[in-house]
Amino acid sequence: MQFPLDSGVMRTFSKREVREFYRRLEATRPIPQTELEFVSPFTLLVAVVLSAQATDIGVNRATPALFALADTPRKMLALGEERLVELIRTIGLFRTKAKNLMALSRILVEQYDGVVPSDRAALEALPGVGRKTANVVLNVAFGEPTIAVDTHIFRVANRTGLAPGKTPLAVELALEACTPAEYKRYAHHWLILHGRYVCKARKPECPDCVVASLCRYGAKTGPAEVIAARAAISEPAALADPPPARRIGRRATREPKKSGVSSRRGPPPRRP
Hints:
Elements: H1 15-28, H2 41-50, H3 56-69, H4 73-79, H5 81-87, H6 94-112, H7 120-124, H8 131-142, H9 151-160, H10 168-178, H11 184-197, H12 224-231, H13 235-238, H14 250-253
């Protein structure tokens, strides 16, 4: 889903605008953190699996008691599925998630000696772990510059025009292509937190948005004068990429040949 401008045409971000977009988000949260509570790569993996189709707040309510009893794959297996179900009952799809957590804990113990792998393919082979979950674990636990696209990031990327795409994978690839290297480490966190607290689904907080002047969304909310003052509407033009330097050939540098007729005027003719 795209969020075009009033004209119906979404102008592509220039490289300078992309860099400025992230610079402003970085200024609001220099070192952003995931809001899921965890104490190790395994507890992070568990929390992310539980967060599917659930809120971080809801997951954080359930995990302290769970992690007090089972903060390793071996302890999770010793806990047992029925006890696990009781501890995560407040989270949506808790029975399916309990089965997946037990299964992935068994694989981690049998194949990886209880250690969470830092390999994407190995992570995605675990029950209940898809590309988004693997990206979160790789980024948060192992510091990889991956960008996990959830519903918030999908909305922000399309609504602002930063990286439009019809699927989460398309948005992820677009973000990876346009995001400057120095911002990739925390790009996921900046975008998700911006979507969660500012660029909200039903009513975005445009007057409080630090990237409003760069955003391509044509239905910004709030008083127009507030948005104009906050967004500095004329700014994007100054952030456009400069046109490529014009190459001057040898022919263009030659001086024009002088004609035989002088362009200087002579004295006026005498009267008889």
